[in-house]
Design goal:
Layout (H helix, E strand, L loop, with lengths): L2 H10 L8 E7 L1 H4 L8 E7 L7 E7 L2 E9 H13 L4 H8 L1 E5 L3 H14 L7 H23 L5 H18 L10 H6 L1 H6 L8 H12 L5 H15 L18
Parallel strand pairs: 2-4
Antiparallel strand pairs: 1-2, 1-5, 3-4
Helix pairs in contact: 3-5, 4-5, 6-7, 7-11, 10-11
């Protein structure tokens, strides 16, 4: 048994005999085999529904940093539902592909089967109202960046903030499940890495090319790079004309 497994077993002894303990799951880089010297050991603990609290904690065990999340069963169901609505399948991926450490009454196995079914579903697009306001927000950030540049100020903060927002917008416009921004470069350029993280739906090649240009561009060429990336993402969402923008939806009358 490896040192990190011994540390994990020692950690789990704190919880397995608790009356509310239902099961535990190893997830993250240690579950996928992608761990390195900076990785922590991610553990998700499932508790019975009568648990009156939830917790996220970190601690060192024999030199290994362990990050632990404790949630009652119903909270995991809530997070999975919210994830489906927001195109974030983190919880489904975690239960579908994590390593089961303990499952007293089969609740993790139920979550695993549910997660696999939901990962196969076609993601539903957001409403036109939501997408239109998303594009309006992106335009505002882009316009602020251009104004800052014209006034002779550095654009670095707004540049990287806009790149961040454009990534999520593209994934939403195209009904792709979100991926970690910390890992997106590896996911887009390393097929084996993407496979280990169970990323099955990738953006088109042009998106990848333009995003990587934004990452790798020299300081003086940042504006042309973000300009191309911004326009491509906006077109993928149906295009945007600020002079014709109208965001309207029904509300309840008093």
């Amino acid at each position: 048994m490896k040192d990190w497994e011994l540390a994990l077993n020692k950690f789990m002894r704190r919880y397995v005999n608790k009356p509310w303990f239902e099961g535990a799951l190893l997830c993250g880089s240690y579950a996928s085999g992608n761990q390195n010297e900076f990785s922590d050991i991610d553990v998700t603990i499932i508790a019975s529904d009568d648990l009156g609290w939830q917790e996220k904690s970190n601690c060192y065990v024999d030199g290994f940093l362990i990050e632990c999340t404790i949630n009652p069963l119903y909270k995991n169901q809530e997070y999975m539902k919210i994830g489906l609505e927001n195109h974030s399948m983190i919880n489904q991926t975690m239960f579908a592909y994590g390593i089961v450490l303990s499952d007293k009454h089969g609740e993790i196995e139920k979550l695993r089967k549910q997660s696999i079914r939901e990962l196969k579903r076609k993601i539903k697009p957001h409403s036109k109202y939501s997408n239109d306001f998303r594009k309006y927000s992106l335009w505002c950030r882009y316009d602020d960046m251009l104004a800052l540049k014209k006034d002779g100020y550095p654009i670095d903060l707004l540049y990287w903030t806009l790149v961040d927002k454009l990534i999520d917008a593209y994934y939403d416009f195209n009904c792709l499940p979100h991926v970690s921004h910390a890992k997106i470069q590896k996911i887009l350029t390393d097929k084996e890495f993407a496979k280990r993280y169970h990323v099955k739906k990738q953006p088109d090649g042009k998106f990848t090319e333009l995003l990587l240009d934004c990452f790798n561009v020299k300081q003086k060429d940042k504006l042309p790079a973000i300009d191309k990336f911004y326009n491509y993402v906006m077109e993928s969402g149906g295009g945007f004309d600020i002079g014709k923008f109208i965001g309207r939806r029904k509300i309840e009358k008093k």
